[in-house]
Amino acid sequence: MVIDIVSTIFPELESAIPKLLDMISNRIERERASIIKILERVEWNASFNRDLNSCIAIGADSSFTIVDSRVGTIYVVQGIAIRQTFTRSLIKIEEYNRFYDAGLISIKSSSPNRIIRRSIYKRALSTYAYLLELQSAYSLAKSGSADVVLLDGSLISFLMQKDFKGISMNINSISQAKDTELREVLEKKNILINELSNLSNTIFIAKSSSACFYTNGMYPDMYVFELAKLFRIEPYYRAGYSTPMVIEIDGTLKKFLGIDKECGIQFFTVTYSRFADGAPVFQLTLPHKIYIDKVGSLFSYVKMLSPSGYPMPLEYPHRISRLARSTLIDILIKIGIPIISGRELVEL
Fold first, then answer.
1. What is the DSSP string of 250-293?
2. Domain coordinates of the chain in residue numbers?
3. Which residues, 6 or more positions from 201, have their beta carbon under 8 angstroms from its beta carbon?
4. Which of 48, 188, 213, 338 is the most exposed place for a label (fewest CB within 10 A)?
């Protein structure tokens, strides 16, 4: 006999939920005046090159997962970089570079009192995945020209390494002849960011960010621009981009990022963009100083690539590289690798 378990919601909760919408609406309405005041200081550029009819773009993305086993912490990464030609009527894949890796990852702390949480493993593996994405995109950029190279995430995320102070990481990979240390991953990653940005127009596109470059800490920038869409404040909810800001990677920012050595990038440029009227806003970060005319030219390219409001060169790699953790666990169990259960993890 099959028992169908149906989710239940109390009638009291059901009647209370609409009040949540009222509460949120009232809160947002109270903030409207301060949001408008902040936006008045931000110039929104809604002009772009409407005559563009072709673009060559490279997009790269990856997916990874971690599984705890009785023989160690297993990681798997897979991703793809694709160079495509886009016209008004045609999308053509010119070249692609699939990449993958799997192995064991171990992390130790130099402090006996520090607990290595699972989040540290995820951040460390995310950093390693960033390196593989950069290597793959750089390989395509060297083999053929591209108007833009798009990477999923913010430049700050790619440069961030403060979480790794006082720890040592070792990656025992099936694709490498030797073990890889965390220090080596961080150094290679920063070098590649610099080299890729010198080779081609490299744009880091983030769907979320808590940065406050435009608001002086009052609200996250993206929160302000999303409320502008909600309130339909002209011209900020329309396709366009904010006047770019050039940020120096000075001693304070290096300390925040956890960068000890020179990373080759002294400045970066940030802007917030919408690629269609009423579409979500994205944070665009570009290594080095990029002035407004150049930013406008690059925005025109990315807008052409984003008819639905999100860049197609990133959408394809994201879908193709998606990796389900449950699928990996099933495979590991079938080949005989002992997996630690949820109860065993709690007892550790």
1. -HHHHHHHT--S--S--EEEEEEEESSTTPPPEEEEEES---HH
2. 45-334
3. 146, 147, 148, 149, 286, 298, 301
4. 338
Cα–Cα distance between 206 and 139 in angstroms, integer?
23
Q: Which two tokens stand for residue 263?
A: 């990373």
Q: Assess whether pLDDT exceeds 50 at residue 218.
A: yes
Q: Would you call the peptide bond into 18 cis, given omega within 30 degrees of 0 as the criterion?
A: no
0.90 exceeded by pTM:
no
- Using one digit for the tens of pLDDT, what is the confidence trace for 96-154? 999 999 999 988 877 777 777 888 888 889 999 999 999 999 999 999 889 999 999 99
Q: Tell me the CA end-to-end span of the chain in Å, nearest whole number.
A: 37
For the domain made up of 45-334, the CATH class stated in words is alpha beta
Q: Can you read off the two tokens belonging to residue 221?
A: 């920038």
What is the number of alpha carbons within 13 Å of residue 38 lying toward its C-beta? 24
Report how far residue 220's alpha carbon sits from residue 280's, in angstroms, rounded to the nearest whole number. Answer: 15
